[in-house]
Every structure is written in C-alpha cells, then in structure tokens.
Amino acid sequence: MGHIKGLKCRECGREYAIEPIYVCEFCFGPLEVAYDYKSIAGDISRKKIEKRDKNLWRYRELLPIDGEPQVGLDSGFTPLIRADNLARVLGVDELYLKDDTVVHPTLSFKDRVVAIALTKAKEFGFDTVACASTGNLAHSVSAHGAKAGFKRFIFIPSTLEASKIVASLVYEPNLIAVDGNYDDVNRLCSEIANKYKWAFVNINIRPFYAEGSKTLGFEVIEQLGWKAPDNVVVPCASGSLLTKVWKSFKEFRDVGIIKDLSTKVFAAQATGCSPIAAAIKQGRDVIRPVKPDTIAKSLAIGNPADGFYAAQVVRDTGGYAEDVSDPEIIDAIKLLARTEGVFAETAGGVTLASTIKLIQSGRIKRDESTVICITGNGLKTQEALQGHTSSPHHIKPSLASFEEVLENIKKGE
Ligand SMILES: *Cc1c(COP(=O)(O)O)cnc(C)c1O
Ligand SMILES: [Zn+2]
C-alpha cells in the first residue's frame, strides 16, 4: 500500500526491510513497524473509516499488511459501554468499558493481535504458526489458525486454567504444556524459533502482531465520537497493549483524525506479578523481573518484554500505576458483573480494582472521562470464582418448596 516504511529499531533507529525479524542486529533493541504518516494522512478520513465493515480492519491504513486482510474478518469493533451504574458506585461522572470480553472468535483482545499476525504470516508464506502463551493467546492462535489452515504449535505453562486448555484443544493444535512459568516457556520458544522456520506470533512476528493492539485504541476514539478520553486504564502483562493503545492515539492525532490529545495512560497489574507497576510507583526506569504468583494468569509475565516502554508511556502522559491483590480482583469481577452485566476474566478484575484505587487516591479525577479496558471473558477463568459466589437455592419440584425459598429470599432483601 506504500504506507509502510519498514521496521525500525526502537533504540538506535536503524531501519530494516519488512521481514519476520524482531530484534536489531546492532543493539539488540526491539523492532517496530514504521509508517509514512504523511502519505496515510492524505489517504485516511473519518468518513472513509465509517463506511467500512465493523471489524478491526476498518483501520487498515495503519496496520502492517501489504494486501487484503486474510484472517480475523469478524474480529474487533467490540462495544464501548457507558458504565453509569458502575460510575455511580465509584463516584465518577463519565466512565466507559471497552468490552473485549466479546471479541470474535475467542473472547479476548488477543483475537486482534492474532488477526494481524496470521495475515502477515500468510503474506510471508509460512505454513506453521506458533506462540508462547499465558492462555488467551493459545486460545486465539488455535482458533484463528484453524480457520486460516495453519499447522499450529502452542506452548503454555502447564499450570494454566483447565478451561483455557480445553478451549484451545478443541481446535486440535499441537498443544505443548511446559513444566515452568510463562517466562520459562518464552525462553524455550526463543530457542525453538531460532531453529524452526515457523511464524512465532509473539517472537519473530511480534513487531506485526503487536500492531494489532492499536485497533482497540482506534475503536475507543471512534466510539467516543472521534475524541480521546481523559484517562485510559490498561492491564499489563508484557506491556505491549499499553504501549500500542498510546501509539494508536498518537497516530490518530498525527494523521489528522483527531486534533487534541492529552490522555493520561494508567497501568494495572496484580500485586503477585507487578514488575511494571512497581517500577512506576517507585520512580525507577529499570524493570526488576519477578516470579509470578497471582490468579490473574493471563497477566503473569514476570519479565515483561515491553515493560520499560510501558512505564515510559505512563510517565510521559502523566498517568500512574496500581496493583491489586487476588481478593481485590475477585471483588472487582463481581462488582462489574452486578453493576454492568459484564463478566470479565481475572485481568478485567485487575483493571477495575486498580481503577478504583486510582480514583480513591485522586490520580483519576471525578469529573474526567475514563475508559477501562476489559480485555478477556470470565467464562474462561471460572475457577477463580470457585467458592466466591453464592450457591443456587435447591428446591423440590413443587410450588410449596419454591414459596418456602421465596419467603427466605424476601426476608434477606
Ligand atoms: C495478554 C493479555 C493482556 C496483556 O497483554 P500485553 O500486551 O502482553 O501486556 C491483557 N489482558 C488479557 C486478558 C490478556 O490475555
Ligand atoms: Zn538498534
């Protein structure tokens, strides 16, 4: 399309042609897709976007593919929900949920990044795709890869939630459960990626994969009536989503889709795995790796690849970070469900619980607009709620038995 200049090292700025590579040969910095924003500005407009199908490819000028979209033609364009019930409880005026519990086909924001990664893998001519996953990526590569006709090798920590394992297995990928945590899996996968000519979506295809996260940010701006919110709260695992949400906001400004941009970006993590939040709160540049111990398994990356850049975005935009305990995560999942009717996975609990702390501490102001990113569906992490919900009322199949229970329910109200 002529909109893509190539790959560019985030550290030394050295440029590379578009290939399945991800690290600078000279300084080992990560590579990122570079665009020609001048040419895109002349080619993109609100009207043009609005006329397109409601999926993530409506922003294709700012996505790193050469030809037509090939994977994820029904992914993206999830609801932005005005959360007035929740806002009332939290004491703020204007609160929105970006509801990625309902992305097609696997109910987490990972369907966005995988749509781009697998389209790019097709363009590169790969026949096999692979990933190192904390759960949702396994699910998404398994599903998108099945539909697109790829052979699939999926690597996960063996301690993953049972429901996420079944959810991946049903698509019949080669699922490899590694004895170790995500960081062990990722290290092993880097070795495998060097040896086998596969498209590892979050290793050698990572620069393209990561761009898919921008579509969440583009949608937020479009759905707010073409304006950026005052605040956005983003959950962090590797930190990639957070950096790309900010990149998407800047790009819409740089190509003239929006005029003003003063959004503060906030990071949310579980206390049991909070290397990014800890660095931000302690005012450090260096991310200190940790050993994850949290029910928020989808966010359990102890050595986050983009942690440094995520912390930088938070600092540069005037945001902050919070981290929350497992009980706080569970309470927030239940609060979101009973106020807004949205069942989020543990990562959603992390994001909401962190937002509550940010409001209480005054970092997020009550009269500002705030978008919180709910990135995955609670049906996939039901075991986190085991013992934390009420039980059904058991009755005999008789009216009398029901009315006995009804009396008790009324008494309890
Ligand atoms: C992977 C994941 C994230 C965070 O992703 P990063 O880009 O690695 O920070 C957030 N929420 C959910 C549900 C995820 O699966
Ligand atoms: Zn470099």
Give a brief description.
The protein is of the alpha/beta class and 413 residues long. It has helices spanning 37-41, 46-50, 84-90, 110-124, 136-148, 162-169, 182-195, 206-211, 214-223, 240-254, 275-281, 307-317, 326-340, 346-360, 399-412, and strands at 4-9, 15-16, 31-35, 80-82, 94-99, 128-132, 151-157, 174-178, 199-200, 231-235, 264-270, 321-324, 369-374.
Notes on the protein architecture:
This protein is of the alpha/beta class and 413 residues long. Among the domains are: 1-35; 80-106 and 210-385, Rossmann fold. The chain has helices at 37-41, 46-50, 84-90, 110-124, 136-148, 162-169, 182-195, 206-211, 214-223, 240-254, 275-281, 307-317, 326-340, 346-360, 399-412, and strands spanning 4-9, 15-16, 31-35, 80-82, 94-99, 128-132, 151-157, 174-178, 199-200, 231-235, 264-270, 321-324, 369-374. α4 packs across α5, α9 (214-223) crosses α10 and α11 (275-281) packs parallel to α12 (307-317). The mean pLDDT is 96. It binds pyridoxal-5'-phosphate and zinc ion. Zinc ion binds next to loops.
Structural class: alpha/beta
Q: What shape does the CA trace take?
A: globular
According to CATH, the fold-level topology of the domain at 80-106 and 210-385 is: Rossmann fold
Q: In what order do the strands lie side by side in the largest sheet?
A: 4-5-13-10-11-12
Uncertain spans: none
Named at the architecture level, the CATH assignment of the domain at 80-106 and 210-385 is: 3-Layer(aba) Sandwich
